[in-house]
Specification:
- The chain has about 280 residues and is an all-alpha fold.
- It has a domain of about 180 residues: Up-down Bundle (Methane Monooxygenase Hydroxylase, Chain G, domain 1).
- Helix content is about 70%, strand content about 0%.
């Protein structure tokens, strides 16, 4: 007869492994459809689109997420609640679906991609908030609280960056759907015969940077509005790291520094400060 306790011994690993599987799906999706993503972003560039170097934050998110889910799978550290892992994995799944839709470029596909990214941002933010629920439990051991904060940063950066990316995607979809829609960037020639993949990617990066440099620099009020929302959510879910990705994006905006963007940074910082105050007031 099977021992019920033995059957449940490894159940704790299902949540972390679900996140890892969904992340892997996103990586595969990006590897298959990555070529046109940069061109689409360039073609429908918004005034609040950050420089390409801002997207380097994805490396930190990927590496941190893999490290955290592997650590939780060992059961040697605190394991997040089922709902946290479910929403975290669902956010990665939405990201995987976003890539081919955004790659397709036509307005209907871009609107569908926008919905995927908004859903991903919502799921990741909810997961980040739920992951901090232990901080509200006065009976939780100190070690659990410390481990929860230490293990939650990749999810927080993921959620915060998705909030910024979703706002950019909304602007791209709106721009592509306008009656007088006009692309802001010319397409890059396809890979030439005999040209290596590395050379093609390097040539494409140079052309994108040159195209961005030629575009007029305008100040947008969207980052300020987004900073109010993100700062408020940061205080609500008691997570001071949540605004950091948006702050990183603002620092990489073409018009930075300007008064509006400095105000946006201040609003993000206030949200982080509010979260810290709430944590220490418990």
């Amino acid at each position: 007869m099977l021992d019920k306790n033995a059957l449940l011994d490894g159940v704790y690993a299902i949540g972390p492994l679900a996140v890892l599987c969904a992340l892997s799906l996103s990586v595969v999706s990006s590897a298959v459809w990555y070529r046109n993503v940069g061109e689409t972003s360039c073609a429908w560039r918004t005034d609040y689109s950050p420089d390409a170097r801002a997207f380097g934050i994805w490396r930190l998110i990927y590496i941190g997420t893999v490290g955290v889910v592997i650590a939780q799978s060992t059961n040697l550290v605190v394991v997040f609640d089922w709902w946290v892992h479910f929403l975290w994995a669902l956010a990665w799944a939405f990201c995987a679906l976003w890539v081919p839709l955004f790659h397709a470029e036509y307005p209907d596909a871009l609107r569908a991609a926008m919905l995927q990214l908004v859903a991903a941002a919502g799921c990741a933010t909810a997961a980040a908030g739920l992951s901090r629920m232990w901080l509200l439990d006065d009976g939780a051991p100190t070690q659990q609280r410390v481990e929860q904060v230490a293990l939650g940063w990749p999810l927080t950066l993921f959620a915060g960056w998705l909030a910024a990316a979703a706002a950019i995607n909304v602007g791209i979809a709106a721009k592509a759907s306008a009656a007088d829609a006009a692309q802001t960037c010319t397409r890059v020639d396809p890979q030439r015969p005999g040209e290596s993949e590395a050379s093609y990617l390097a040539r494409r990066r140079v052309l994108y940077r040159e195209a961005y440099a030629r575009m007029p620099v305008r100040v947008s009020f969207v980052p300020v509005v987004l900073a109010v929302l993100v700062g408020g959510l940061s205080t609500l879910i008691q997570d001071p790291l949540y605004p950091v990705p948006l702050m990183w994006a603002i620092l990489n905006l073409p018009a930075f520094p300007c008064f509006e963007y400095l105000v946006a940074l201040l609003l993000c910082a206030c949200g982080s400060a509010g979260a810290i105050v709430r944590i220490f007031m418990l």
